[in-house]
Amino acid sequence: MTPDQWSALEAVHLDIAPIPAQLREQASELHVAAGMIVANLGSRPKFMYFIRAGEIRLRRLSINGAEVVLQRGTYGFVAEASLATAAYHCDIVAVEDSVLLAFPIKPFAELLPTDTSFANYWMTTLAREVRSLRAQCERLALRTARERIQHYIESEGRDGRLELRQTRKAWAAELGLTHEALYRTLSSMTAEGAVRLETSANRVVLLVKPL
Amino acid sequence: MTPDQWSALEAVHLDIAPIPAQLREQASELHVAAGMIVANLGSRPKFMYFIRAGEIRLRRLSINGAEVVLQRGTYGFVAEASLATAAYHCDIVAVEDSVLLAFPIKPFAELLPTDTSFANYWMTTLAREVRSLRAQCERLALRTARERIQHYIESEGRDGRLELRQTRKAWAAELGLTHEALYRTLSSMTAEGAVRLETSANRVVLLVKPL
DNA sequence: CGTACTTTTGAATCGCATCAAATCTGGTGG
DNA sequence: CCACCAGATTTGATGCGATTCAAAAGTACG
């Protein structure tokens, strides 16, 4: 990859700049069409994938043929555990046209124990992921749309202020709700004065009003 | 080795044996009564906690005083990200009488970059946690009790066989369901022949029958 | 200016939560 | 060994909230 392409990435929240240049140079950009299988269950991991665009899923087919989704990702690393495994325990599938960065896994794994700052980056990345996933789990365990919204604002926002980086429809999916349910709940919360919505520069901002 | 054999190896229970003896010797066992606050929001992390028994929560109070739970744990490490942060962004509370292992965080953080095998252990632990949390998120996003149960069996069981290590009531909570809903769904699934339950040696075993 | 998408509202339905209460169970102490 | 207790398991009735299906209005973008 060229330096130009890399600096564009550095602006994004999940930063891959700390990855050793040596690895970044070996990474190749992969364009995958919707429906394509990136890697198969049982095969030995050859690459560590980083999703830049699109949507990737890790899935497994159950005994009776039903699809079981183990992970869904639109940005960031997928299947981090494949570093330490001899074989994938699920398929990696693109459900949309996607752009992936494929880091050859062997040098990746070999450099981690050697390069201290790289290891630090990797541990920090994983720990952050764990934290955000745990919060997401707690949120999804909440019963009502209102509770999930409030939880999201509290855990992802700051000082009762939350800037959405996505459409409300996409947010609904993240909250485990239908978009109708989210729209309805947001409008009733607004009516009650529990939150206020601002739309500035195509960004929706949610403000929580303390009672 | 076949993929099956590998996942059997990976399913090893969370073990703290690989932690350097030097750190384990410095760790102290902490008995905390239900309701006690282990660490406060804003304070500098002094220990890395490992839950051996009881239940610990990471929580934050929202602007209007509502409790927001960011993590709930009954076994394993809590707040792994505190390794790299100067201050907790939430309270750590025991909601039951609990037993914790407190590793002084400074030597913990200092040894990680030095000790390669320790770093490997830590990265593997985190990656495994990420994987299991992602599966849990996908599961909780499913709408019906039946789908969550099937997802659990597929992702946590092996070959359509799942041994529960907990009561069904506790399992219901993990699935984000009331125990009534779980009992009812299990019995109707049994009636339809979708699963079969065996109780041997106080362990409930769930068997999925392929259609 | 048309197209694809998001946002919004409506009505009917379904599944789970909730409250209640009756067993069943493992483990305890007498 | 038995009585007893706390907890898990089971079943019932009711209501709420989200899903689902449907359709209209708004919005971004080429």
Describe, in plain words, how this protein is organized in 3D.
The structure is a homodimer. Chain A has helices at about 5-10, 20-25, 105-110, 115-140, 145-155, 170-175, 180-190, and strands spanning about 30, 35-40, 45-55, 55-60, 65-75, 75, 90-95, 100-105, 160-165, 195-200, 205-210. With about 210 residues, chain A is α+β, with helices and mostly antiparallel strands. Chain A has 2 domains: about 5-130, Jelly Rolls; about 145-210, Arc Repressor Mutant, subunit A (Orthogonal Bundle). The radius of gyration of chain A is 19 Å and the shape is globular. Chains A and B meet through strand 5, helix 4 and helix 5 of A and helix 1, strand 5, helix 4 and helix 5 of B. Chain A binds a DNA duplex (30 and 30 nucleotides) through helix 7.
Known CATH architecture of the largest domain in chain A = Sandwich
Q: From the helix content, strand content and strand pairing of chain A, which structural class follows?
A: alpha+beta
Number of strands of chain A: 11
Helix count from the secondary structure assignment of chain A: 7
Please tell me the overall pLDDT of chain A.
Answer: 89
Strand adjacency order, main sheet of chain A = 1-8-3-6
The name of the CATH superfamily of the largest domain in chain A reads Jelly Rolls
Largest sheet of chain A: 4 strands, antiparallel
The radius of gyration over CA of chain A amounts to: 19 Å
Note the beta-strand portion of chain A.
25-35%
Q: Shape of chain A, please?
A: globular
